Amino acid sequence: MAKVLIIAGSLREKSFNRQLARAAEARLAGRAETEMLEYADVPFMNQDVEFPPPEAVERVRAAVRAADALWIFTPEYNYSYPGVLKNLLDWLSRPVVPGERATAVTAGKPVAVSSCAGRSAGAGSRAKLTELLRAMQAVPLEELQVGVSLDGAAFASDELPLTDEILAGLDAEASALLAAVAA
Asked: Could you tell me how many helices (H) and strands (E) the chain has, helices first?
């Protein structure tokens, strides 16, 4: 059974993207093993401490290495992904062996990208994150990405409305990600 590592781009426990990530995790039940990556303890990327890497970086790299695929759920901050997610990805994109770029744990890894945001449904953050993932030598799914548009009621309640349409989108994206793993 494939192993999918889920990454919520927001550290906030009740973030909409974390809620969407949990819904996707439930949709993968019985189809893949899943793990939610916790990375709040990863320090800012700093080449002065890159080798040997900090313990938290070793831990997240090991989780990525053990996964067959990643599924990232990103908020949209100023038409882009959040800094905390960028920092994590910067660490993951760095070579494990100094000077050997192909040793980065993201190289060749299939990655699904989804988002929750306001009216844009996170289109800006998904586009920029997809571009970043390609630069990291990952293999982002570009044709099928779930984007959830949030209205004022969602922001007032802090609850993600999981409609049948959203769940069907997650199912389709999950199937595409698992097909990429099997390819």
From this structure: 6, 6
pLDDT per position as a tens digit, 54-107: 999 999 999 999 999 999 999 999 999 999 999 999 999 999 999 898 899 999
DSSP 74-119: E--BTTB--HHHHHHHHHHHS-SSTT-GGGSTTTT-EEEEEEEEST
Helix (H, G, I), strand (E, B) or coil at 177: helix
Neighbouring C-beta atoms of residue 135, cutoff 10 Å: 10
pTM: 0.96
**CA angle, 33 as apex, 31 and 34 as ends, to 5°?**
115
User: What are the structural domain ranges in the chain?
Assistant: 3-182
Per-residue confidence at 156, pLDDT binned at 50, 70, 90? confident
Nearest Cα to Cα of residue 149 among 120, 171, 112: 120
The CATH homologous superfamily to which domain 3-182 belongs is: Flavodoxin domain (3.40.50.360)
Q: Collect contacts of 21-28 with beta carbons under 8 A, ≥24 apart.
A: 21/71, 21/73, 21/114, 23/160, 23/162, 23/166, 23/167, 23/170, 24/71, 24/73, 24/114, 24/170, 24/173, 24/174, 27/167, 27/170, 27/171, 27/174, 28/4, 28/174
